[in-house]
Amino acid sequence: MVARQQRVGGIVRCLAAGLALVGFSLMAQSTLPNPTLLSIYPPAAKTAATATVTITGASLDGLLGLYFPVKGITSKPGAKANEILLTVDETVKPGFYDVRVVTRYGVSNPRGFYLTDRPLVELKSGGRLDQEQIGFGQAVKADRMTIAVNAKAGQKFSFSVHASGLDSRMEPRVSIRDSGNSIIGRFFEASPFALKSESDAVYTLDVQDMMFRGDVEHPFLLSLDGGIGLSKEIITDEVPGSLLPKSVRVDGSYKGRFPADSTFREFTFTAKKGEPKIIDVRSARAGELADPSFIIERLVGGKWVFIAEVADRKVLAGKEEFDDGAADPVYRLEATEDGEFRVRLRNNLSNQAAFELIVRPLGGSFELVALPADAPVAKKTATTVTHLPLWRGSTAAFKVYALRDIDYTGPVILTVDGLPPGVTAGPAIIGAGANVGWLTLTASNEAAPWAGSIKIKGNGSVIARGAVTVRATPNTAREPIYTRLTEDVVIGVSEAEGPVLVEPETAVVESKSADKVTVPFKLTRKGDFDAEVKVTALGIGDKTPPVLAFAAKAASGSLVLDLAKLKLGNGDHTIVFQGTAKFKHVSLLDAKAKPKEVTAVVHSKPFTLRIK
Amino acid sequence: MFRFILGLSFLAFYAVRGGERSLNFTNDIVPIFTKASCNSGGCHGKASGQNGFKLSLLGFEPTEDYEHIVKEARGRRVFPAAPDRSLLLTKAVNSTPHGGGKKLDVGSEDYATLKRWISSGLPWGRPDDPTIVSIEVQPKAETMSLKGSKQLKVLARYSDGYIKDVTRSALYEPNDKAMAETTEDGLVKLFDLPGEVAIMVRYQGKIAVFRATIPLGAPVDSLPPVSNFVDELVFNKLKSLGLPPSGVADDSTFLRRVSIDITGRLPSPGDLQAFQSDANPEKRQAVVDRLLASESYADYFAGKWSALLRNKRSDPKDARGNFAFHHWIKDQIYDNLPYDKFAGAVVAGVGSVETHPPVVWYRQAKDTTTQLEDTAQLFLGQRLQCAQCHHHPFEKWSQQDYYGFAAFFSTVSRKAASRPGEEIIFSRRAEAQAVNLRTKLPVKPTELGGRTLSLTPEDDPRRSLATWMAAKDNPFFARSLVNRYWKHFFNRGLIEPEDDMRESNPPANPELLDALAKSFIESGYDLKQLIRTITTSTVYQLSAEPNAYNGIDRQNFSRFYPKRLQAEVLLDAIHTVLDSKSAFEGLPAGTPAIALPDNSYNASNYFLTVFGRPEGSSACECERTQESSLAQSLHLINAPDLQTKLGADKSRPAVLAQDDKRSDEEKITEAYLWMTSRKPNAAQLKTALDHIAKLTKDKPESEVTRARRNAYEDILWALINTKEFLFNH
Fold first, then answer.
1. Is residue A588 in some structural domain?
2. For residue B147, what pLDDT band results from cuts at 50, 70 and 90?
3. Is B317 on the interface with A (CB under 8 A)?
4. 3-state secondary structure of A511
5. B17 touches chain A (CB under 8 A)
């Protein structure tokens, strides 16, 4: 497994306030005790070594260890509560990885964790850092941390600080002082600082959060020589600060950097009548902090004539789900005559982010992003941490987005590789032109507890990334929403048993578009669960989706679908239902404890509605 | 109909009559309303008019005025058949009750003119009637004696060459009411302050200026040594005014003054001793360089600019932007970013809080009006506000100028950034233009007093604005900044107010202003170099002690003008002298008040509020209150937080009291050095020693320590309440 990118889809996405609610509440009393990881410290470990880390979070009882999506790392609970012993094999490549907590109840949300083959040093105020070392620490609330750096004459440094790769809240700011206490430089996340010491000296680094925040959620890493590898999706020879060519001929694609001052860069190409071209900019989608836009012009009589201005593409995902990179513009050019065209591209964020400009013929594709299906929660102005617990004998669903190229409209058939024994995936299709589909996983009663990565694939080849809410936001009107993309889609099969399994009697239901069709369901109740169950169809019916209701103690029910009202096109549609169920749960950790009433999100197994 | 024919007859009669010009409404009638202040902003000239009768402000729109008078309400205000009974006249003489009182006398020339106009049929005027081109005041300038007087003569020149004496009809206003007053007929009367005063003369939208130089006439036999061109130009003025300057301040005074002015901090006794014992003849320049290289300089001036740039926290979610912007400002000041780049980064800012923090300015400057008015006031020293609705009453700016300047901001656009309440600021692709609200016509971006620009839709007009602002021949940009900084150091700008630079408000020393601006431009807009030039001048280092002659000087810089310490500086000074630490929520312990990132700390700190720390709601430095008040005095005398600091176990009074290795004389001297940067004189030392003796006398051993401590608390408390501590002098 390759080293995880700093953030697939970029650094932590902090999304604007919007609608609420994905996933489970942190209120363990009324919900299933799904583990939530808040912090892990130290936020780094050395390869070919063991380390002890301390975790904080919620519902961490029954701790089994940590999960890394890479071979070569083992873990087990330590002697103290919330302590874990890590052993990292020497074969593990240095880099940032997602780490999750595994308990008997399932797998938590991730946190960024750094593995290095260099010496690791914990930084506290008054401490010291040397080259070749990687320092780690936590920002101190309402304070600065001073770190000494000894330098020899001629010694070169490349100071860098990293926080977002650890899912830290910290926005680091580091000032470099010379021995006379004068500030000689500053550096921040993603902007390293180069220094050559003219003489033997002791430099002081003042490390702080920009707003002087600090606690366990504000870890950071510090390096003096660029020792922390940050892989980027777009690799370009144009480096920040270099002279950029004013006009470039594009043949296919070009990777470069925006100018620092939000001025335009120009790219020319030829287009022919009858041969549409797709002009696509990839920057925000590649995790760059960018807001590109471009103008298209055509050369007429020696002058450039305006055709169109293109800014954001259509937003597909909800703000509380993930940033789908809608800031990247895209345009379909239909040349009315053969000719020369020009794209004038700029970045409204006026920073030197990297970009890829693609000018191509038709024949686009798609990307996939999978995230745990929405769960209804009371407060609509808050988000909660999401992860997908899969209980034995029950079904859980992923919401899968197809981020289509502008010229790809075909259906996307979803399949899953890497499922553990006892876990099966339901059929799932994202219909032609649609952007969202639902993929269910069902764990049998005999499925063993498991934590691991699965591959959700589209049309057999496109592998989905995951989207996770990194931390809860209690008030989205005031604080950012923290989501990001992950390379891996991770699930956990819980030891615990779900209260109910909802499944259609038939896997495929065929009908005509204007018909009413009845779909019978069966309900398998576990234990003494006898409450009524109501589940609502996902993704169909707009504001009035169909509702499937089971009376108390009922073992079956049926659903009548009025297809004329649903207005579904011809073809196959995967229908999944979601609801909640309250039931009494006996803690896995204490069989003698009184059962507690908890609420679980319930998904049905899917059926395929085939409309002819 | 009958009225109309009658009017025409009268008109014809007067038109052919030799020797009497036919009346023109704009030229002859409107000035009467202006002179009588009928069309002032406080009366009929305000937007809603007064009691149903509206005139254009100061007569800037005569066609509208004609409509209102002659045609509105079926012409009920004027009665050509019996002019004396016209409401226009009866109200003016108050024979019909008039809220504005009596404005004209029945026998006056203005009354007669109005009557004639009414009786002649209310002529608008002929198409070929001349228009006013300019006015001239005679004399333009004169040297006058204290308490002298001078009758001005004002001539209006018309397009046909006609020249008319409008002395009686013009309006007069001195730019410094402490120095002069004027009568309605243009008689200038001076008071007893030497210097220069300008009398603005207005007539029919034209302006002229009379400048009076009022020398004191005292002998200027010797002058302090000249350090740079500032001294040359100030001393030249003082010689011409016969105003001898005070002597040069001593080392301790200078060190305290310049430390406060550059860094907002007091020097320590150690700094003082080192400075006084330094034999280097360039030591004053050296200390200026040291202070400019300090972080406190960046903190202090960052606070100044942060408030002017409206880095205000209106909501908790603004905090991130506030911190980011403040950090940026401080970093640029510390790194000495050239001022033209600094201003350009703000005005032409593109990006978000994390990529370009100056865009936070646009968070408060939400609309074009605020953007252009702030830019004009802050960076160009021009108050354009009035010109939004009408021709500027005191300056040449018209509405066309206003909207031409507004057009620079016409393509500013916003979109939501990733965090709640934050925005991305950018320039959308569009034809840059603003609509003149009066003419309803579009106006392209136009430099103030300069070119109208033809830009493409892809251009960000704000970049062109930034380029023009930084141009060497821009008449406002450099002058505005040097004047602002001059005021920072001298408590009075060369032009007052510092952001109201206009022809009718000339500088106290125009040659100096020009020289400072030229030097600033030639330095590459180097702010530190400007400060160096100012503070290493002898003028800056003059004593605040007046001599026999210059106690009354308020504008010629013949001595240093004391100024009260600003709120943050004073709070920090108290912490310094008492050796206590500030505590601001969420900031490192000991963060000085000068380093606070925004206004949000004012609400929780009464000291800052009562001593006038601004909220950052305006581009005007006047938002900061420097006036003294009873509340301030009471706070210093009684405030519990101050009492707590005084009485703390580790505070300076306690440490001094407990120090049994030094004599009380030495300790009192130390207290004075902290507070005033000087040693106490004999009388002051005796007073302090007597107080200690009084409190400790006859006290039992167990109470002496406490009594001694009380005495030292009293001494420092008393010193805190002295003007010498509270003022920079």
1. yes
2. very high
3. yes
4. strand
5. no
- pLDDT value at residue A25: 32
Find the farthest-apart pair of alpha carbons in chain A and give their distance in angstroms, rounded.
87
Q: Which residues of A touch B416 (CB under 8 A)?
A: 16
Contact between A22 and A383 under an 8 Å Cβ cutoff? The reply is yes
Q: DSSP secondary-structure letter at B69?
A: I
ipTM of the complex, rounded to two decimals: 0.92
Residues of chain A in contact with residue B324, where contact means CB-CB under 8 angstroms, are: 210
Residues with Cβ within 8 Å of residue B68, at least 6 apart in sequence: B53, B54, B55
Partner residue facing A351 (CB), from B295, B351, B420:
B351
Q: Do B331 and A186 touch (CB under 8 A)?
A: yes
Could you give the CA distance from residue A7 to residue A231 in angstroms, rounded to a whole number? 9
| Residue B651: inside a domain | yes
The whole domain housing B138 covers 132-214
Domain count, chain A: 2
Rg (CA), chain B: 31
Structural domains of chain B, count: 5
Residue type, B39: N
Contact (CB<8Å) A211/B319: yes
Q: How far apart are CA B660 and CA B23, in angstroms?
A: 92
Chunked in runs of 10, what are the mean pLDDT values of chain A (612 residues)? 35 33 33 88 97 95 94 95 96 96 94 96 97 96 97 96 96 96 94 94 98 97 89 88 89 94 95 96 95 97 96 92 95 96 96 96 96 69 82 94 95 96 95 93 95 97 95 89 93 91 93 88 91 90 88 92 87 91 87 87 92 88
Q: What is the pLDDT of residue B386?
A: 83
Average pLDDT, chain B: 93
Of B562, B588, B604, the domain-final residue: B562
Q: Is residue B474 part of a domain?
A: no
Structure confidence at residue A589 (pLDDT): 86
C-alpha span between A573 and B85 (Å, rounded): 90
In a domain, residue B197? The reply is: yes
pLDDT above 50 (res B712): yes
- A339 domain residue, yes or no: no
Among A516, A515, A612, residue whose Cα is nearest residue A558: A516
Distance from chain centroid for Cα B572: 26
Total number of residues shown for chain A: 612
CB contact (8 A) between residue B587 and residue A182: no
Does a structural domain hold residue A147?
A: yes
A203 within domain boundaries: yes
Predicted pLDDT at A207: 98
| Minimum distance, in Å, between the CA of residue B670 and any CA atom of chain A | 27
Residues of B in contact with A9 (CB under 8 A): none
Q: Side by side, which strands form the sheet with A44-46?
A: A44-46, A106-116, A95-103, A63-67
**Residue A440: domain span:** 367-611
B115, part of any domain = yes
